[in-house]
Amino acid sequence: MKRDSGKFRWAAITIAVAAVPIQVLAQTARPEPARPAVSPYAPYEWLIGEWLTEPRAGPVQRIRQRFAWGPQRAYIMYTISVVEGSKPEALHLEGMMTWNPRTKVLDYVIAHDPGTFSEETGTLALQADGSIVREVEGNRPDGSVEHYRQTFIRSADGHVSTRLMHLGKSGWEPNFPGSEDLSMARSS
To answer: Taking the model in full, what pTM does it have?
Structure first.
């Protein structure tokens, strides 16, 4: 019996040793996925960075928007914090935007007002006029859904602005007084 168990052990070792090169070859034989010559994120690169955003008119409300690359520029992190009056800066939302190769736009999911269990989902898409539109579906804890739209505009002279609107009973309306014309300036 000892001889049989020894033969079995040697057969098992031989099979295991032979399998290692096959696994290594299988791993190295996989071709690298083709990378596009131009990044699908190229139209959105000018947004990367931190922006201080304020209404040109209306109450004092400062918004800090941050767009940051994920590892290897695989996605964009988006964060908004808000300062109202003399209150301390508070996180409003944070999430990730990623390229959807089927629809050719960025999809995103965002935690909205952390701790409330609300979320935003939607798209970020380049428009024919060069603006970038963030279409938002706000999903609330009670199951209700709200629709928002944010438009980023970069003029020929380099000025950047944004509009924050929500879908109301009579169509698209400002989120708050002055949100239809917000100035964006890069923070230092």
So the answer is: 0.78
